Amino acid sequence: MNAPRAIKVEMSTPAPAAPDADGRRRRSQDSRARIVQAMLELVHAGETSPAAELVADRAKVGLRTVFRHFNDMDSLYREMSAVIEAELRGIIAQPFKAKDWQGRVLELVQRRASVYERIAPFRRAADVHRLRSNVLEADHARFAALAREILRREMPAEAARDKARFEALDMLLSFEAWVRLRRDQGLSAKRTVETLERAVASLIAGSDAPLSPR
Fold first, then answer.
1. How many domains does the chain have?
2. Which domain holds residue 188?
3. Mapped to the 3 state alphabet, what secondary structure does the chain carry?
4. Burial of 137 by CB count in 10 Å (0-12 exposed, 13-18 middle, 19+ buried)?
5. Averaged pLDDT, 148-164
6. What is the pLDDT of residue 210?
7. Residue 205: pLDDT above 80?
8. Does 127 share its domain with 208?
9. What confidence score (pLDDT) does residue 105 get?
10. pTM to 2 decimals?
11. Residue 22 domain-assigned?
12. pLDDT interval class at 57 (50, 70, 90)
């Protein structure tokens, strides 16, 4: 699996003949985008809690400019989360290749692997602050709910009603399972995918035999 590339923020290009008010607005938008990009780059480089001064220096703006656009660092983390979520939704929306539900669930392993490798530094940084931030806690809950809903959507209703199997699949396809195998158990990305595919395949292969009472 290729190493994840850094996430980029799209910055607008000022029109050459823009009126003064429009020019100021574009400069303000570009400053905001540079601040968010600086935050993304610092976190991607391993800074889980970059100070506002470090972000300002990286973005080549003044510290006052950072806090003019963002009331506090929590709101900057929220903006970072929104940029990542927007990009992830594009990946999630891609059509599946498999025709049957078992194949689509297996496909989720590879698809989520590329996503999890990409967002791992940002999720680690967000998790450091999540327990003291209602905004980041809500983002975490929304991401988990979205991942669950995608799994439920791809499974037939009858298969999804087997609660033990559904919960086991949801756990295996989670970011937390990915991190456990990658970081705590020291597996490569390739071996992690293989391990999860084998576990998921084992669960869905016996989909006609429920793991729990219905």
1. 2
2. 95-214
3. CCCCCCCCCCCCCCCCCCCHHHHHHHHHHHHHHHHHHHHHHHHHCCCCCCCHHHHHHHHCCCHHHHHHHCCCHHHHHHHHHHHHHHHHHHHHCCCCCCCCHHHHHHHHHHHHHHHHHHHHHHHHHHHHHHCCCHHHHHHHHHHHHHHHHHHHHHCCHHHHCCHHHHHHHHHHCCHHHHHHHHHHCCCCHHHHHHHHHHHHHHHHHCCCCCCCCC
4. middle
5. 93
6. 46
7. yes
8. yes
9. 95
10. 0.74
11. yes
12. very high
* Shared domain check, 127 and 24: no
Q: Which of 2-16, 80-94, 104-118 shows the lowest mean pLDDT across its residues? A: 2-16
Do residues 202 and 111 share a domain?
A: yes
Looking at the structure, do residues 104 and 65 belong to the same domain, yes or no? no
Residue that wins the pLDDT comparison between 24 and 198:
198
User: pLDDT confidence of 194, banded at 50, 70, 90?
Assistant: very high
In a domain, 53, yes or no: yes
Instruction: Mark whether 153 and 50 lie in a shared domain.
Output: no
- Is residue 80 in a domain? no
Whether 50 and 118 map to the same domain: the answer is no
